[in-house]
Amino acid sequence: MDSKNNKKIIFMGLAIAINLVGGFIALTLKLPIYIDTIGTILVSILFGPISGAMVGGLSSIFNAVTFDPISFYFMPVQIIVGLSTGMLFKEQKFKGVKSIISIILVTVLGSAAAAVIASFVFEGVTSSGSSILVAILKNSGMSIITSVFSTQIFTDLLDKAVSFGVVFTIIKMLPVNIKSMVVGEK
């Protein structure tokens, strides 16, 4: 294995750690956002959809084993975020309407998957802070799927705005030698 691949694997490991820390903070503080896809998004943009999906899937496994068993069920969401981000941001351009539409599309795809999982596997109640909103909507007479998706899309839009903002900032701050490492890697 060459030096470039070693650096890529190390960077992907760091991205998994970023996801774990974000997820742990959100779960511990019962935040209505998740901040557990920052590493997935970062790797997806820098290395492409397959690498991003791998980071997302492994993050779900490590989260499940360490502190949040429920996150294992949401592995498809991490994989969808990794794949869709990698495909939509392969040009690494972070400006304008196309970028905003891409973020919204990533959010809707992830939200739809998460809503189905949360509704049918957990009846809307998971380990996240957003479960409180689901309960309120459900108790007001909404169906479980409507309650979960309404909550999911709202919290995911906020979550992805924060996550993509952090990622774009990280990428802008990366040293030139790290940026040059990933050119042509997708």
TrEMBL record:
Domain of life: Bacteria
Upper lineage: Bacteria, Bacillati, Bacillota, Clostridia, Eubacteriales
InterPro entries cross-referenced by the UniProt entry: ECF_trnsprt_substrate-spec
Bilayer-spanning residue ranges: 12-29, 41-64, 70-89, 101-122, 128-149, 161-178
Pfam families: ECF_trnsprt
Keywords, alphabetical: Membrane, Transmembrane, Transmembrane helix
Organism: Clostridium cadaveris
Keyword Manganese: no
Entries under Gene3D superfamilies matching the protein: 1.10.1760.20
Name the record gives this protein: ECF transporter S component
One MF annotation (Gene Ontology) recorded for this entry: transmembrane transporter activity
Keyword Aminoacyl-tRNA synthetase tagged: no
